[in-house]
Design brief:
954 residues, mainly alpha, elongated
Length: 954
């Protein structure tokens, strides 16, 4: 059995990991392991884990943790038999394990060995200390809670720094002063008052031929000590200063040129998921032996590019006996690592003396390529800024593999195998959170854990931050963290712990943008929509479509915007929050421009289907919008953009102001099309919120538009006829042409509702009102549409002669006005009437023509209506097979549109057809489903012996 404490706390039996449970249980194990077999009282354990103010029943919790640790450590122990490892002593415990079972013991042994070899074989001592330091896999004891863990974490960190000092001293003694200089700089920034680091840097600078810089470092050290804590430099630092002044430092040996670099930072202990992509990259790096293999991992900040790259690098390191080189290129910093500096570090790691490294970058690159020409080396270029920074670092001969991480896509580099890293899958994110918090804590609050994962948008860095915060706050519930994250205004503030912050990760990428790109990033994020097409993005930014695409693609290249299909862009949820938090344009102005684009596009859609002259009554728009080439193109546009339009309605409802009028007009246009698609309920909910805002603001024009639109979506889209009347009957009288045109639509919908409810007289009255209003507007095209609709009421009420006359007048008028919507509807209603009169051949001809017209129009809903009527006509003509096929086509179309009533009608027709061929079980099931749909709509159900009978005499 082995225990790892220098990083996340883990344990193994042979190669099998042990389940050590939640953080508090691991803290109990650590407290016992670090006592090295000595007894620890219960009081000491409670104070060390829960502090001076322990939770209630802390002793009971301690006993439970010990019992579960015993079961895990000694699974074969018989119940109630004495423990052999975790034994009880008094009211406390001791953990008795053989020597050498912890990584701390391994490091201690290596440090002692290195001390014995230091004088006789400093190179061997140095390699041993390198190995010892490699045992740290992050902060010791991970994120274990409690005062004892905090104290021991600090002690072990000081021990690590002492070992690191000894290894750096050996670096200098064995001729690697330049490498020591590079490593000591950041260490001194992190530990400015640690005098030995200063002394070592001065010594390394001196041996690198930089005596003046060594003396300047002493001045900086003295200033930091005097100003920081009011003391003069200590004896060691003063002695080094004096010896440099007298040139008395002893010479050091020069390194040989046979070094095998091993520069990879440690792999992360709790690496989670990514198995498929990790396998793919590992296969790439071990691939083509005839060329330099270059693999690049891209993605947004915090998505885990470096973590994945290092994990894969450690997996394949054995394939590269020449060693592994690593550099953090700091591509998102204000001052990225210069290629020359990176090359200098590589050359030193390969054993080149400082004096042999050329000053020019091109010469360093040539020397580097020469040194790699006969070696198999893995080169990891982490956090690259762009292709220019990377290009001179690439080797020139086969055998070497390069693994690059970057937020940039590095499109200018040839022959690169690129991997775009996305966020974790929800299951992977949950596994990561479980590994940080322990399975028991997750099991206690599974719903809250899922909420946290969702609010972190499965971004690995966000999940790690939340996990770290909860791990050191054992009294916090996961639900409390979910509540904090749910507030968008403070979510990014919650996602920070110590120096690890999501805001900082995003800000580094934001700092790379030029002013125009930065404005685009901020502005597009203020549109609270799931995604945007290029044209809409350009409209929001006030630029040409070409420039809009350029800006969006630039943001994609820097992993600040995402694209999954050509010409559409979206933000990661957390990046959107970050962008919205930056000073920028008013959200309401951005929304108004976006609504202007979508209203212009909706006008184009209405014009493309030759519907009416409604577009002249809408709010004027300033951009061309999406150009619809016809009804089919408009249907595609409607299907794609419906989620965006719903989001725009919601945003307008939230913000109020000028966006309400634009959104109301957009709702009006979409109501004319009458296809809410599969999102009809979401459309209705968004419009209700928008109606509430318009009512509160006293915007009567918008209220009228929204009531009409809601009437349409409730009745046609959701099949809720009675509910639609609540909105339609409350519309105020019209005062202008726009109001009169809206009243026409309302009267139409009321006429349809009364027809469906069996109120024939009221249905005729509403259609007559609509005709009168339309004639006052001079809109003959719309009048043709009203007459076509009125035909159905006449037909279903048995007024066949009147129905034929009205339908024929509607057809004539529709042809004059080129209104193919009315033309198609009038054809299939005339067909239904002819069918009921027994004129089946004429009816079938008209019904098939209606389908062709509907297909020309391209609107799915209208074709579904036409095919439903044609199926009915086939059924009444005794053409059962044709009726079954046609009703199946109608069902398919109406299932993609939003019209549950006519979908149920088509289902009843299909049931009648399959019943005729003897499949009574299917017929009964389908008829039952159709009847239930009609019941939910408050309508009398269809029957197989009335309207849909194949016998016209019934």
């Amino acid at each position: 059995m082995k225990f790892a404490l220098l990083g996340e706390v883990r344990a193994w039996r042979a190669d099998t990991p042990l389940d050590l449970g939640p953080p508090q249980r691991r803290a109990v194990l650590v407290a016992l392991l670090l006592r090295e077999g000595k007894a620890v009282t219960a009081a000491e354990l409670v104070e060390g884990i829960w502090g001076e103010d322990p939770v209630p029943r802390a002793v009971s919790a301690l006993r439970t943790h010990v019992a579960k640790l015993r079961r895990e450590l000694e699974p074969e122990r018989i119940t109630r038999a004495p423990a052999a490892m975790l034994i009880s002593i008094g009211d406390g415990y001791a953990l008795r394990i053989p020597d050498g079972r912890t990584d701390i013991g391994d490091v201690r042994e290596r440090v002692e060995t290195a001390a014995q070899l230091r004088d006789d074989d400093p190179s061997a001592a140095r390699e041993i200390l390198l190995d010892a330091l490699g045992r740290w896999q992050g902060a010791a004891l991970g994120a274990l809670p409690g005062p004892y863990a905090e104290r021991q974490r600090a002690r072990l960190e000081q021990w690590r720094l002492t070992i690191l000092e000894d290894r750096l001293a050996l670096d200098i003694d064995t001729g690697y002063s330049a490498e020591a200089v590079a490593e000591l700089g950041p260490l001194i920034v992190e530990h400015p008052l640690r005098e030995r680091f200063r002394a070592l840097l001065m010594t390394a600078l001196y041996h690198s031929g930089r005596q003046a810089e060594a003396l300047q470092e002493y001045a900086r050290a003295r200033h930091a000590l005097v100003e920081g804590i009011g003391v003069e430099p200590g004896p060691e630092l003063s002695a080094v200063h004096a010896r440099i002044l007298r040139a008395e430092l002893p010479p050091v040996r020069r390194p040989g040129r046979d070094r095998t670099p091993a520069q990879l930072p440690p792999d992360i202990a709790d690496f989670t998921g990514r198995s498929r992509v990790a396998d793919e990259i590992a296969a790439q790096l071990g691939g083509d032996a005839g060329a330099v293999v270059i693999s690049a991992v891209g993605g947004m900040g915090g998505v885990g590019k470096t973590t994945l790259a290092l994990h894969v690098a450690h997996r394949v390191r054995d394939r590269f006996p020449g060693g592994q080189l690593y550099v953090n290129l700091r591509g998102v910093d204000e001052e990225p690592t210069a290629p020359g500096d990176a090359l200098g570090g590589f050359l030193r790691a390969l054993g080149v003396a400082e004096s042999d490294i050329p000053p020019a970058v091109d010469d360093r690159a040539a020397q580097f390529r020469t040194m790699l020409s006969d070696r198999r080396i893995l080169l990891v270029l982490d956090n690259a800024r762009d292709s220019a920074q990377v290009r001179q670092l690439l080797p020139g001969t086969p055998g070497t593999a390069v693994l690059i991480t970057s937020r940039s896509t590095l499109t200018e580099l040839p022959a690169v195998r690129r991997t775009r890293l996305d966020v974790l899958e929800p299951a992977e994110a949950m596994t990561l959170l479980t590994r940080i918090l322990g399975a028991e804590r997750i099991a206690a609050e599974p719903a809250a854990a899922h909420a946290v994962i969702t609010l972190c948008a499965c971004l690995p860095l966000a999940v790690r931050i939340v996990g770290a915060r909860l791990a050191v706050r054992p009294r916090w519930t996961i639900a409390s963290m979910a509540t904090r994250l749910a507030d968008e205004n403070q979510r990014l503030d919650v996602l920070r712990t110590g120096e690890l912050t999501l805001d900082a990760a995003f800000r580094l990428g934001y700092g790379q943008l030029n002013p125009e790109q930065a404005r685009a990033f901020r502005t597009l994020a203020r549109a609270d929509v799931p995604d945007l097409p290029t044209e809409a993005a350009a409209a929001v930014l006030g630029v040409s479509i070409a420039q809009g695409e350029y800006l969006c693609e630039a943001l994609v290249d820097l992993s600040l915007l995402e694209t999954t299909v050509p010409g559409r862009y979206h933000f990661h949820d957390l990046l959107r929050l970050f962008a919205r938090g930056q000073p920028g344009e008013d959200e309401a102005q951005v929304l108004a421009r976006l609504l202007d684009y979508y209203l212009a596009s909706a006008k184009n859609l209405l014009s493309a289907i030759d519907y009416s002259n409604t577009t002249r009554l809408l709010v004027p728009t300033t951009v061309p919008g999406h150009a619809c080439t016809g009804g089919a193109d408009g249907q595609r546009w409607n299907d794609i953009e419906r989620p965006v339009i719903i989001a725009l309605h919601r945003q307008a409802a939230r913000l109020g102001g000028p966006g309400v009028a634009l959104a109301a007009d957009l709702a009006w246009v979409m109501a004319e099309v009458m296809d809410g698609g599969t999102g009809a309920r979401e459309v209705a909910d968004a419009l209700k919120a928008l109606l509430h805002t318009a009512t509160q603001e006293g915007d009567s024009a918008s209220v009228r538009r929204l009531r009409t639109a809601l009437g349409a979506i409730m009745q046609v889209g959701l099949g809720e006829v009675q509910a639609s009347l609540e909105f339609l009957q409350a519309i105020s009288p019209p005062v202008d042409d726009a109001g009169r045109r809206l009243q026409v639509l309302a009267e139409l919908l009321l006429g349809i509702a009364d027809r469906r409810l069996g109120n024939t007289k009221d249905s005729h009255r509403h259609y007559a009102n609509a005709v009168a209003l339309t004639r006052a507007l001079g809109d003959r095209s719309m009048e043709a549409w009203i007459l076509a609709l009125a035909t159905r009421t006449l037909c279903e009420s048995g007024q066949y002669d009147e129905a034929v006359a009205v339908a024929e007048r509607a057809i004539e008028m529709a042809r004059e006005c080129s209104n193919f919507v009315a033309l198609g509807w009038a054809h299939h209603e005339l067909a239904a009437t002819r069918s009921l009169l027994g004129l089946h051949d004429d009816a079938l001809r008209l019904g098939e023509e209606a389908v062709r017209i509907a297909q020309r129009n391209g609107v799915r809903l209208w074709e579904g209506w036409a095919r439903t009527r044609l199926a009915q006509t086939h059924l009444r003509a005794g053409r059962t097979c044709a009726a079954e096929a046609e009703s199946a086509r109608a069902l398919a179309l109406l299932s993609m549109a939003a019209d549950p009533i006519d979908r149920a009608r088509a289902l009843a027709l299909h049931a009648a057809a399959v019943a005729e061929r003897g499949d009574t079980a299917t017929a009964a099931r389908e008829l039952r489903d159709a009847t239930e749909a009609f019941r939910r709509a408050g309508l009398p159900p269809p029957t197989l012996t009335t309207l849909f009978s194949p016998d016209p005499g019934q």
